[in-house]
UniProtKB/TrEMBL annotation:
Residues 16-53 form the TRASH domain. This is MYM-type Zinc finger protein with FCS sequence motif. InterPro entries: TRASH_dom, Znf_MYM. One of its GO terms (molecular function) is zinc ion binding. Coiled coil: none annotated. SMART domains: TRASH.
């Protein structure tokens, strides 16, 4: 319930932002990257998205 309310306050995302898999309300992995909350189907997608979208400079 709290999660749903929180999701509704953020922008509406119904797909994993990395692989495009549909997200269900009870199965969403969210991560804040550079101050923006992104939604994924799993932590692996979050890692991949974070890695490819924001390359870390060494
Ligand atoms: Zn995914």
């Amino acid at each position: 319930m709290k999660l749903n309310m929180r999701l509704n306050l953020q922008r509406q995302v119904d797909k994993c932002e990395n692989c495009g898999a549909p997200l269900s309300a009870g199965h969403v992995y969210s991560r804040e990257i550079n101050g923006v909350t992104h939604y994924f189907c799993c932590s692996h997608c979050a890692d991949e998205f974070e890695g490819s979208g924001h390359p870390s400079c060494c």
